[in-house]
Write a structure and sequence with these properties.
The chain has 242 residues and is α/β, with parallel strands linked by helices. The protein has one domain (3-238): Rossmann fold. The protein is 37% helix and 18% strand. It contains 9 helices and 10 strands. Helix 4 (81-96) crosses helix 6.
């Protein structure tokens, strides 16, 4: 039984508890919801890999946000998809803002970072694609038409990124992503925002950007829900519009 189906069944028989803090009464409590309500900022890994796109986030990847992202991706907890997608939509809007209240691109294609096929099959769901679609619906309702094209595939087997260091992640993904020929026309020449749930070392966004550009896409930015805060030599969390 896929993980997502099992979790949906458990939701019917177990009392609700907050994914972020385990408080009873709600799957996502107001206190944890506040951790996704921050102002978006431009985030850059340190060291920043070559080819890293301009990337926006709304939260630090720790505490309740990390718990929610892991529950959504690894355990198929759908209850947190909507709040995560709302935060992702804010990141996308920030990435497209021109600084004067307008948009650099009034219509945009969201392309989710690719997921490993084995992981999608075991979960019975592609959580990154689901997150992108939910965010696109929110953006469209808000007046920023956004289409989702799942254009990226992994052309070869890759290891699970969890537990890998920055260079190991880069080596693991180098040359692995591609845009199938049948999907290239959906992104070629079009403004694309690459989306994912989290950015850590930047390896996934770099490889995804390379593959999209090779297919003729115009990658204008990347947007994520959260960025890993690295203390001392970690991610630079800054807002260029403060």
């Amino acid at each position: 039984m896929p993980v997502t189906t099992l979790h949906a069944l458990l939701d019917l028989v177990l009392p609700a508890a907050c994914v972020g803090c385990d408080a009873e009464g709600s799957s996502w409590c107001p206190a944890c919801a506040a951790t996704l309500a921050g102002r978006p900022w431009a985030t850059t890994p340190d060291p920043c890999p070559a080819g890293f796109p301009a990337t926006w986030a709304v939260a630090a990847y720790d505490g309740p946000v990390r718990a929610a992202a892991v529950a959504h991706k690894e355990r198929g907890v759908r209850a947190v998809r909507a709040p995560l997608a709302a935060a992702l939509a804010v990141s996308v809007a920030a990435a497209l803002a021109d600084g004067t209240g307008g948009l650099l691109h009034p219509r945009v294609v969201l392309v989710p970072a690719p997921s490993r096929g084995a992981a999608v099959r075991s979960r019975g769901d592609d959580p990154t694609l689901g997150l992108a679609r939910c965010a696109a619906r929110r953006l469209t309702r808000a007046g920023l038409p956004a289409a989702v094209v799942a254009a990226l595939r992994l052309a070869r087997s890759t290891a699970d990124q969890a537990g890998l260091g920055a260079q190991e992640r880069a080596d693991n993904l180098a040359g692995a992503a591609r845009v199938p020929r049948r999907l290239a026309g959906a992104v070629a020449g079009r403004p694309v925002v690459l989306v994912d749930d989290v950015v850590t070392t930047g390896a996934t966004l770099v490889e995804s950007t390379r593959a999209l550009q090779a297919a003729g896409a115009v990658v204008v930015a990347a947007a994520v829900v959260a960025a890993t805060p690295r203390r001392g030599t970690g991610l630079s969390l800054r807002s260029d519009r403060d």
